[in-house]
Structure formats: C-alpha cells, structure tokens
Design brief:
With about 100 residues, this protein is mostly helical. It contains seven helices and no strands.
Amino acid sequence: MLFWLSLVPFVTSWVGENHFAALPLACYGFILFMSSSAYFILAKCLANNNEALRVALGKDRKGKLSSLLYLTGIGVSLLAPMAGFAIYVAVAMMWFIPDRRFERR
C-alpha cells in the first residue's frame, strides 16, 4: 500500500504539468485504484486476525464503491479528462464524511 501511495506526488505533478491531459489523469486514477485495492487487501488480512475489526468493517461498501469509481474515472478520463477528474474528487469528498462503523463498535 505504501508503494502505491508513494507514487501519488509523482503523478499529481505530472497531471499539473500537463494541464489535466487525458493520459496523466488516467495514470493518476490507476495509482488511486491500486492504492484502494491495496487498502482492501490490507483490511481483509487484518480482519482475518481480529473479530472486532471484521464486524466493524462489515461489507465495506464505501471501499468497494471507491475502487469501482476509480475504475470508472480511468475510463472516463481518457474520453473527457475533466469528467474523470470530477469522479476522483467525488471519491475524495465521499471519504470526508466520517465513517461511523468503528465508532459504533
């Protein structure tokens, strides 16, 4: 997970230098998708060893939806770069809403 997160500054700079061109935005989405996939794998591995965490995670709809939106954003950014960027921003805004799953447990 840390590997994919370490690439975020590089692709962010690339997107900025190329003024939101299609290929850099698609690569940005790919890095975000791989980071979310790594998070999903990490959460599942941790939940296998901790019953309370498994219950708190539940079906992890928010994490799965994020990955799906990142994949959608990759495809959309190749056709309409600003629409793809809007999808990435929507995922970020979705995570600003506090996740109550852990507070309840």
